[in-house]
Structure formats: C-alpha cells, structure tokens
Design a protein that fits this description.
By secondary structure, the protein is α+β, with helices and mostly antiparallel strands. The protein is about 20% helix and about 30% strand. The protein has 8 helices and 20 strands. The protein has a 6-stranded mixed beta sheet. Helix 3 packs across helix 4.
C-alpha cells in the first residue's frame, strides 16, 4: 500500500489462489467474499478490475465502503500476498517523446557529431524544438500490446536477439469512463486511477534501418513478453492531488538512474487523454502511458544485463521490483 492513498485496488496471489484485493494500510481485503456487492462478479480472475472499471462511479463508492469496513470481510496481512498485474488493459496508448530532458538526452545519444558539431549545439537545437512543440505541437502516440503486460515483481526475459534492452519508467493513467473528443479541461474526469509501468525497450529495433522511410518500429522494440511490468496497485485518482507533481525514480542494482518530476512532461496527463480521445474512443480499462523521464540506459551508456534488478517508484503509487534474465539464463 502507498502512504499517500487511503486504499487501492489490485490483483494478488495468496496461499489459496489469486484474487482481486483492496490494499488498506498494511492489510489486504480479499474481495472474493464480497462478490454479492458487485452483482456476483467473479473476483478471482485477472479481468475483474477491468470489469469493475466499467461502472467505476458506482463501484468506487462500494470499494470505498469496503475499505472502511474493517469489522467484516476477509482481511490478510499485506505482506502475505504478492501483487500481480492489477489490470488486463483493453488497449494501451503510449505517448512518445513526452519528457523534455529525456528527448534532449536521446537526441545527443543518437547525434552525428562529425564535422565539428558539438553536444552543446545538439542540446540547444533539440531544446528549441521541444519548446516549440510544447506550445504549438501535438502529442505523439503509438499502440502497445496487452500481451506485453506482466506483474510488478515478475522476472522478465531479455530476448537473445539483442543486447540493447533499456528501461523506461512511466506514469500510467487508467481510464474509468468513456472519453471521446473531450477537452483537456474534461479529460481528468475520465481517469479512474493511476499506476506504474516500466516500458522496456529494445533500442536497436526502434528504427528500421532497412526501411528508413518507414521510421520507427515500436511493435518489435517494445512488445516482447513481459516488457510492460504493471502495478502494483490502481490508486484512485482522487488520492493523487496533481499528476504533474509526482517524482519518478528508477534504481538499477541500487543506483539511481531516473529521478525526475512529471512536471517535465511536454504535454500533461490531461492533454494526453484529450489528444488520444480525438482519434479513438477511450473506454474503461484503457491505459494511457505518459512517457518516460530522463535517465534511460541509452543516456548512461549502460543497458540491461542478465541478473540486473530495477526498483521503480512513483509518488503515492507504490513500487515495482523487476529482475531481468538473459534468455538462456532465465529461471
């Protein structure tokens, strides 16, 4: 459970199976015993959270009441259960190049510095482009696959077809009501909760060298099994005062690699939700990934290796711990 929220929704593994749970303080409420409150919904399946989101306004009120009722129900020590991915997302929309400093760092890492061009010039040029984009541009989205989702403490295999796998800690907004062509001022009314994702990326597959006119290949670069650790909890949006004032921190083997405020986003969460809704109807259970801050492996010149452990936190949302293993060494 997280210190700034009163309760959160998740899907956990316990001694007698997996189930939807409420995390309250150091306790977890097994919601299987409360199925009658939710029209007999099967709360032992990983799809339960998505189904609860379909009527989030009513179900949130019921969940809040159950979280406050410590005299009844089945309560377990939070430490006795293992959080799994809290949601089977309906669709995943991912915002690319949405943190100013991150984009500048990536531009430097990919820049051709021959002919007397300097790193400082690249930084200045990219900063000017980003500042113009923030004022007059629009967000850039691509689509992720739900099959890439894994739990917040699951081991992830690094495919043997590359040695350039990277981390990208991100804030994810969870949609709780249909949003189609909504304004930025309306957008956050459609966000039910927030959670953590780590959008793992195979750097040498991002660009199609054989088809440069096509550009990026996000399907191959980001959708290997387990490349989207999700969770641990869905923290209701009302417990997050301002999604633009959160700190995202990722440690690799204990060393801080990413440590940035969501204030560095070029487009806010509200602007991202609004922009995505102009093209498609956002529905309950959809995830909007909001981009990754500075400090990726491509910047540090240190990418993921067999046995590495990433610890990821976002203010008020809990933490992930992800160990990675080379394909031949997994297990």
């Amino acid at each position: 459970m997280t210190e700034s929220s009163q309760w959160a929704l998740g899907y956990v593994a316990g001694v007698d199976g997996s189930f939807t749970a409420l995390a309250v303080g150091e306790q977890a409420r097994d919601l299987r015993a409360d199925a009658s409150s939710f029209a007999g919904l099967d709360l032992s399946t990983p799809e339960a959270s998505q189904l609860l989101l379909r009527d989030w306004h009513a179900n949130r009120t019921k969940l809040e009441a159950l979280a406050a009722d410590t005299a009844s129900g089945i309560w377990l020590p939070l430490a006795s259960v293992t959080p799994l991915a809290p949601l089977v997302p309906r669709q995943i929309l991912q915002a690319g190049a949405n943190y100013r400093t991150h984009v500048i760092d990536l531009a430097v890492s990919h820049a051709d510095l021959s002919g007397g061009r300097t790193e400082e010039q690249v930084r200045a040029e990219t900063a000017a482009i980003m500042d113009e984009r923030k004022v007059n541009g629009i967000p850039y989205f691509f689509i992720g696959l739900p099959s890439a989702v894994t739990g917040p403490s699951d081991e992830v295999m690094l495919p043997a077809y590359s040695e350039r796998h990277d981390w990208e800690l991100e804030l994810a907004a969870v949609i709780g009501s249909t949003a189609f062509r909504v304004s930025p001022e309306e957008a956050l009314d459609h966000v039910a909760a927030y959670t953590i994702v780590n959008d793992l990326t195979t750097r040498d597959l991002v660009f199609r060298r054989d088809m440069p006119e096509i550009g990026t290949d996000w399907f191959r670069a980001k959708n290997a099994p387990g490349f989207l650790p999700l969770g641990p909890w869905l923290v209701p949006a009302e417990f997050i005062d301002d999604p633009q004032q959160l700190t995202l921190t990722l440690r690799l083997n204990g060393e801080v690699m990413q440590n940035e405020s969501s204030e560095d986003m070029l487009f806010t969460v509200a602007e991202l939700v609004s922009a995505a809704s102009q093209t498609t109807s956002l529905e309950p259970g959809d995830l909007i990934l909001t981009g990754s801050p500075a400090g990726n492996g491509a910047h540090w010149g240190r990418l993921l290796r067999d046995g590495d452990v990433m610890e990821s936190t976002i203010t008020g949302l809990g933490s992930q711990r992800t160990r990675v293993a080379g394909e031949a060494n997994r297990g």
